[in-house]
Structures
1.
Amino acid sequence: PPDVEELGRATWTFLHTTAAYYPEKPTQTQRVNMLSLLRALPVLYPCSVCAQHLGENMKTRPPDVSTRAGLSRWLCEQHNEVNGRLGKETFECTVEKLDERWKDGPSD
Ligand code: FAD
């Protein structure tokens, strides 16, 4: 079975980075594809408990693919939900903090 921690770090890196570079005004094609990418995770993610939790969370809180900020925040909140369950720290879901971590790096 895959290493759930390594898989998780790699997947969060991919997802948060993709959200950080998602367009401010995505086209319909970009939205549809992002939604497909996210909806595939509960079906295909190779950690079945993770996939199950994500699927439940996505039912109560559907992904926001309408803007870069909306998507970044939605993912951040999903990640925080997992952090809470695992006893990890909560991340502050502002565009500033998210861009610093996943796009621009720290200023100065
Ligand atoms: P990670 O949680 O992997 O975080 C990597 C980096 O992201 C952190 O160092 C930090 O800089 C940054 N970060 C932290 N929080 C946020 C945030 N909210 N927004 C943006 N950036 C942030 N593991 C389980 O044991 N059980 C599960 O049910 C489970 N479900 C998962 C569901 C999904 C969809 C994914 C992708 C992973 C899941 N994992 C689960 C794995 C888990 O989330 C961690 O990836 C893993 O435990 C390694 O944790 P870590 O402390 O190295 O940092």
Note: Helices lie at 4-20, 28-44, 48-60, 68-86, 95-104.
2.
Amino acid sequence: MDSTEFRKRGMEMVEYICTYLETLNERRVTPSVEPGYLRHLLPSEAPHEPEDWDQIMSDVEDKIMPGVTHWQHPRFHAYFPAGNSFPSILGDMLGDGIGCIGFSWAASPACTELETIVLDWLGKAIGLPDHFLALKEGSTGGGVIQTSASECVLVTMLAARAQALKRLKAQHPFVEEGHLLCKLMAYCSKEAHSCVEKAAMICFVKLRILEPDENASLRGQTIYEAMEEDELQGLVPFFVSTTLGTTGSCAFDNLPEIGKQLERFPGVWLHVDAAYAGNSFICPELKPLLKGIEYADSFNTNPNKWLLTNFDCSTLWVRDRIRLTSALVVDPLYLKHGYSDAAIDYRHWGVPLSRRFRSLKLWFVLRSYGISGLQHYIRHHIKLAKRFEELVLKDKRFEICNQVKLGLVCFRLKGSDKLNEKLLSIINESGKLHMVPASVNDRYIIRFCAVAQNATAEDIDYAWDIIVDFANELLEKEQH
Ligand code: PLP
């Protein structure tokens, strides 16, 4: 494809994307295909000869689209949102066009510097303390874009592990590191995302999963008692991962209490995972949810969830960038450059060497919407969630199972877990609406998340009508 054809095909692609997004509500939300469906539609080998672009695009519509789950559909209410907006898509397009690999400052200075500036912008808008900002006088911290929240948790745990091992090695210089490693203990709540467990597996450290309170919030006293007990057993607490906005029910760990208790355990790294909820802290009225952040060593949120930015764009801030990078620095001669001491080299801030120009899309989003536009978008979703909550509360056959603070409503039919499993299964099978379950306080609940960028009150009412229709049908059948 030469640039003349790219111009033509590019315009056609923009047209295709616009039409796709504008007519999404005519499609099923979820596909009705079986595993392996695509193998029967595509050849088993790549074509030897070049193929015609029109043929490729016609296969997109006929073969790919039938297997797509439409995350931007107005009646997709599963998981947390997958951020999407035209400025963000254009940012990714430009980044792909430039095609630089910004592993160091020298590898593409703008790629590094824009990331640092945009992370400071967003950090300030969220209300992070100054020590998390890279360009603040005297600050030792800074922000970085990672691929996912899972990666943010992993790299902070790796950094905390390296710090803990260094301290232990200084106290016990003749003990092998492998022996010290098996003493390390990390902590999180039962409601934390499974990525904490995965990080502990990768880091080869023990993880103690603690019981939250009745509001799915991890409390300071629980952490304190667990850590004290473990210390008495000769173990070494080194990392606590807290969550602001849990995946199951958007609950908030009690960060002020946990931070206060951790003062009794110097050197323990406190991480805050706010993958979804963190974006909402750009609204002044929601900043109280960030209380206790002054105790944290690191904080992550995903603009690619709730800030109109396409995947991947997971932002991580650390209080002390040297403590992060010292766990990850490997410096072969071919990657060194003349400004290695003065500039940020983001390859030391994460696992991969190669990095895309991801800050472009976030920069485009922040500038195109402005903080006020993004606040409006967040508030709109919260309003829709509140509307849905009211609809549920009006029907006495249902109950609400979480404190609806942001865009997620957890609800269930009063009755058994089995009944609710059935309800969710028939709704999802219909393809009219998509929601997913979670287990909160050991009960099966259904999650309804306001997700679509332009969802309206009518979309919410329509979704509720669908749920009620299926519930009527199910309850009637159950009675016979
Ligand atoms: N943490 C929380 C609180 C989440 O809700 C999620 C996903 O929804 C994750 C971590 C994992 O996010 P990612 O897919 O970016 O790794």
Note: The first helix runs from residue 3 to 22.
